Structure formats: C-alpha cells, structure tokens
Amino acid sequence: MELELRYVNKIKEAKIKLNGLTVIAGANSSGKSTVGRTLFTVIKAIANTKSLDNNMNKMLWRKHIDSFYSRLRGLKINNKNQIFDEIPNSTYYFTNVFENTVDKEKFIENLKKIIAEQKSITPRQKKLLEEDLNNLQIHIENRNTAASLKTELQFLIESEFLNSFGSSRPHVEKALVELKSEEQFEVKFSAKDSFVEDDLKCSAKDTFSFIDDATYVESPLYIHLSDVIISSQTWRETEGRHSLLDRPMVPSHIKDMIEKIVWAARYTDRKVSSSSMNMNDITGGQLTFDPTTNQLIYKEGDYTFKTINVASGIKTLSIIQLLEDAKIIGPNSILIWDEPENHLHPEWQIVFAEKLVELAKNGVPILITTHSPYFLQAIRTYSARDEMEDFVNFYTPVEGDDHLETIVDVSDDLTSVFATLAEPMNKIMDING
Fold first, then answer.
1. Last residue of a domain, one of 331, 359, 375
2. pLDDT confidence band for 271 (50 / 70 / 90)
3. For residue 136, how many other CB atoms are within 10 A of its CB?
4. Looking at the domain assignment, is residue 373 inside a domain?
C-alpha cells in the first residue's frame, strides 16, 4: 500500500510505503501521529462502509427473495412442484445458497431462464417474478459506495481530528488524501475545513477487498478505564450530536482498541499461542477477563491483579500478544502503534522491536512512530537479521520555512535521524563543557 497526504494538519506532504513495517521517527509535535490517525481514519471508513453495505445488501436481498417466493407460492399452476425441483424450496435455503454463491449474476440469470420456460405461468406473473429477480440483481453490489464512504470518512475525521484535519495555513484550500494498494485499489478525497468534498473517488469492483480493518494503539494506559470507555460513545454513534448530558465521547480509535482487547481477553482460547516469540513468556503473565467483575485483569500464575496495579510495560507487551492471539491483527488488518517505547525500559524496547519485525515477516502490515534511538536501532538490526530490509521503511518529518512538515524517506541513511534523537543527550553530556 501507499499513503499520500498533502496539507493534512501539520503535514505539508507525505508519500509513505506500507509494504511491511513502516517506521516514522522524529521529535514530538512533528506530525508523526497525524499519519497514523489519517491511515486509521481511511481504513476504518472503508471497513465500516464494507460492513454497512453488506448488511444493507443482505437486508434488501431478503426483501426481494421474500417477494419472489411469495409470488411463487401463490401460483395457481399444476407443475409448481417441478419448479421447486430446480429452485431452492424455501426462502431460508435460497438465501443461504445465494449468499454463498460466487457468481451471483449467473445464478439469477439461471433463475430467470427457469421462470421464462414455464409455459403454465401467465405473462403477468412471469413479469412480476422477473422484476423480483431484477431487483435482487441490482443489489448484488451497492451502487452508492462512494456516498457511503464519504459519510463514514466525515464521521471519523470529526472523531479523530475534530476541526483540525486540514492545514490552518490561509493559502491552503484543501487537504488531500490518497491510499493505493497492490490490488489496484485506490481511494482519493479532499477535505476543506475538515469537511469531505464531493470529489471522492474509489476504484474497486469487489468493494474494498484489499484490507479489512485497522487497529490503532495510542497508549496501554487506556485499559485502566476499559469499562468507562466501553460505555462511552464516538462521534459516529452520536452522528455529531453531543451534549453534557450524554455519555462521555472518545475518539473512535480509543474505543475501537478497547473493544477489541476486551473481546479478545474474554473469548480467545490462549492455551496455545502460534507465536514463536511469546510476550507472555517474557512478562510472566497475561491479560484476561474476569466475568464476575466484567473487567480486564492481569493473571500471573495463581495471582490476579487489577490492570491499574500492573506496570505499563507489561501491559504493552501483553496487548501485542493478545491482539496476535485473537487474530485481530493479520495480513488483512493493519496495526498502527503510536510511540510504543513511551512505556518500555530500553531492554523491552528492543524486545518489542523484535516482535514487530516478526509480525511483519508473518504478513502483518504495521505502521509505528517513535522518538527512541534504542527502538529505531533495534528495528534496523532485526530487520537485517531476518532479511526484511526490503520491506521495512523509515521516514522522518522535516520542518520547512512555513513550519509545516514534509515526511521524507530516510530508509537508505538514518544518520540524520539518529543525530536528531541523540541531540538532547549530547547537550546534557556537554553541560559542563
């Protein structure tokens, strides 16, 4: 995949490859997190659109299938049983067959042929049955995908950025976003004053088949408040309406992350992990769910601890293992993690970096941001060891005279990045010099 941004928040320009493990390294307030939140916004909007379209299509399918069978049953003909020899004899069976048929167009055309060949059916009845099948054919794929996607993008932009999606510079008219994939999928849109414009374009006959989901981890500390966050609402859920009397509102990526972690801890069988590098072996325990209190807990042997009493680093390693074991992250579900080193000792930064390289090697697309030289060097070392160098890309923000950031590719030379990250240490080492 490739993500291209222009004039999004502090970012003037960015063109970022997402073909394995992508690392954006740099100082605070340089636009790194903007990239991650924008990627989450676009992929989550696509996933939501796909889900909503599928649900709507199925509802419409069932409506027209019910109408079709109601007409069939009402036919006053002698050979009705013969028709049902060629057509599934119930709406339930028909719906199951239809939903699992790959070539639905051909399936419907065969039904039309069967009806057309029935000489005992009157022309009017044939026409009505044909119209039911035509209506079913229309809804094989949603015809308003772009409109649905625009709506989802708008909700998520409001949720993730509020009123700060586009650049605040007066000469900039629009923010531009484009996401392309290897499967010849592309979505491209612009936004003015945080509102998605009508020029949205998306190309994919099989609606958004290239990726299913995105998980954005901003901080492991949110699991302290998992019960509060679960009961909160997002901008999407309120459709933009909010008052002080409502439940608390949180950004979509926070509630999405917590819902996934709680679900995984509650329902995933974790007796056997497919991971060759198990974080639970390093931490000595694992996140799980206590059904008696309806809360996340940390279990270590025969002992259990409330998450608020568990070290942040342990929570970080436990979360990544839980997401992997539950298959919440995988080849069709990208992981976005904002500065994971914030809660890790340098030793565990190196462990976490090795884990990310392992996941990327196993096909998980990953985008991370960092300002840790330990973490950065560990990624570089393990990607070389595992022959992943061609699929690990490094970027850094560079500030221009207009105080906007251009995200540049530094995969071939990280010298300038290490120099920037090491500068604070050099200053304090020379404080008496």
1. 331
2. low
3. 22
4. no
For 119, list phi and psi in degrees, rounded to 5: -70, -20
Q: In the prediction, which pLDDT does 273 show? A: 64
- pLDDT of residue 380 exceeding 90, the answer is yes
pTM of the full structure: 0.80
- Domain carrying residue 81: 55-138
Q: What is the pLDDT of residues 156-183, one digit of tens each?
A: 999 898 878 887 776 777 999 999 987 7
- In-domain check, residue 367: no
* Confidence band for 137, pLDDT divided at 50, 70 and 90: confident
pLDDT digits (tens, 9 = 90+) for 399-413: 988 889 999 999 999
* 93 lies in some domain: yes
Long-range contacts of 184-187 (CB under 8 A, 24+ apart): 185/209, 185/210, 187/42, 187/46, 187/149
Number of domains, the chain:
2
Domain limit, last residue, from 138, 160, 195: 138
Same domain, 324 and 226: yes
pLDDT (0 to 100) of residue 204: 58
Structure tokens at 110: 């065969």
Residues 322 and 225 in one domain: yes
Can you give the length of the chain in residues?
433
Q: Looking at the domain assignment, is residue 264 inside a domain? A: yes
Q: Which two tokens stand for residue 1?
A: 């995949």
pLDDT tens digit sequence for 64-84: 888 888 888 887 777 667 777
